[in-house]
Fold these 2 entries.
Entry 1:
Amino acid sequence: MAFEIDVVIAFADRDNETASKNELGWVSQFKKFLELMLTQVLGEKPRIMLKGEFDSMVSPKMDNTAVLVSILSKDFIQSGQCLDHVETFYKVLESAPKNRNRVFKVFKTPLNLQQQPPRLRDLLGYEMYQLDPDSGEIREYTDYFSTEAERQYWMKMVDLAYDIYETLLFLRDTSSQSEVRSIYKRKTIYLAETGHDLSVQRNIIKRELQRHGYSVLPNQTLPGNASELERLVRRDLEECNLSIHLIGSAYGEIPEGADRSVVDLQNKFASEKSIKAKENKQEFTRLIWISPNMTHASERQKSFIDNIKRDVEAQEGAEILQTPLEDFKNIMREELLEAGEKKIIDSNTGRTIYLIHDKIDLVAIKPIVDLLEKSGFKVLLPSFEGELLALRQQHIDNLRSLDAAIIYKGKVNEQWVRMKALDLLKAPGFGRKKPIVAKAIVANTGSNLNVESFRSQNLRVIEGDEQRSIESLKSFLQEFNA
């Protein structure tokens, strides 16, 4: 089915206000970044429209909209007009085939379940605010390229972009739709919800599983009521033959009507599923990771962890590890490999460099490729021909297998460079088994790159004309070899 508009972003006007007319408001910045990421994965610029409270775009326009993104905040939930926009879109969906979620909720500020519009409560949310895990302080991002933003804001943005992308592919009547379905029709894994201290780590693992074609449950917000939560978790576990549990310092929220946290209850139900599976000679495995750093754990959390380690029943069908998270992820990958579900790239050569560049700079990078190959390195290059999904997968495979990376900035803008630098930061989430040894950006003279911000990401910036860049690269390669 063809739509006039790919994405409508509904928001409260106050959430897009700025101190200066020359600045972009929070929602406008969000639209800009989402558009950028969707352009990368779709291979074309998406049609995205903003819809404020008093926007004149009425129902007929909503009829031709593929996806609605609601920017949730206190102003949004207090605005009758914003809630009307959500209702209008849901009325459109009532007459549409119920084949895939087309509504996404983004949190500009935290809202508990009861504060959220009833229509949106069951949807998974994308938190786009800054949370200090120690103090619990909430702040809006002002520097979108800070280390904290790269860990939280951008990871959520990547997830949102890919989820919207999959929905758009599903809705478009193209041949690639069946390809996507076959890729994602694989093993289903239960990735248990965690305490707030491990939300980023859970997100990385979730994204890695999804990129390799696994369905990940739960795929909706867990209910705040104990009986509903039990029904939903048990139902989801029935669809899985593997569950993954990440246990950190935070005990987690206790649902209404329960005396145990959501984290604790999920582990309990999975343990019961293990016992039942064993009796019925069915396959069901659990991987439980316990953080080795428990400095801020409460007495209740320590007791919960001791019980997991001590209780034979709680250990049924489980492999329990208290190792660095990267080691746990390697074991998780091995578990999936044994099931014949995925292939891990062997990258022990120590001599592989991924030269990341845009198609527009294909000719300009040839001297660099020659230098790298003459220096004895295996050079990985991006591809630009073929199906978009296959190209993205090749990029991810390169990120997993490289030893060093060079980003080439020729005719592209700084935003493009930042996106590629962000991919390098996210490489562990794609399945890397070891650190990246060295990273550099090669740019022409006068590129006006913000050198300091890249240095903070351990990226060496090499600027100059072709001859000077080649000489500086030789020095970089000697240090790499050393």
Entry 2:
Amino acid sequence: MVRSLLLAGCAFGMAAMTTAADARILDPAKAEDALEIGKRTQCGIGDQPAVMHWSGKIYARVQGEPDRHLFDGEGMNIRRCVPVSDPKRGEGYRMVSREIMLFTDPRTGAILREWKNPWTGETVEVMHIANDPVNMRPNFPLDADGKPVPPMTLKRMGEWVLMPLEVPLFYPNPLAGAYQDYVGNQYHAMEIFDFVARADELLDTRHPTAYPAVSWVRLSDWMPWMKMGGRQGQIVFNAMGAKLKSYDELPKLLKDEIAASYPDYTAAPPADDQRPNATTWTEFKKKIDTERAARGPAAAQPAGHP
């Protein structure tokens, strides 16, 4: 879900120590201020990590069928921001993060370990979303040509600032072969983030950061662990959440599962993390490849392979 942030250095520390005499109102039409607004939306104070939490419902959409409420979801992202510098693009920041989303039973709220696929009748193991890392490219006030980055989309409504962000995704599916340009199977999704923040927190530098609420919608292919094969349809996530003031504010369900199964997710990745990003699809491929390797050479071949 939401992308990773990097840990701070002196530049962030100075921003967090703004005095009343130095305070000002940020102008989103100015490239440097727009960058600061983005940082205040996503990052923690100084070198402290930031935690995003969200929860919501997950539906199946299949042509010719009513939509089905398959799961509920409970998720978090822990990130940090570090300053970066470029001779042409100026002073910016980069974000590094990890994120988890648990699939839960809509009736009981319990974390699902197995799920009976209503289309195939097969019971499959549930693989929760646990992506480490989810890092962003550096953000700067200037583009590669040294020109100001276009102003961010903000809408002021009284004491609130609205920040919509649509992220269309279309790239080779890690679970498919090398001929996707010819036969399809690219990963195709859209993620929509709508942030809402108090204007005074977001724009007045007397506040060291902001704590926005966020709506998250994702339309994507089926989760690979659902074992849907080539069946037509997609999965729709609809969740709401907020940036929290500490990890301790997460729901007990999430904290208990992280402690038991994902202990690294109590902290953000290191500031200099250069690992390639993880997705559900890359992590599922690793899982399947490991299981096949453990079963021996014959298991490495797909069913029906000559």
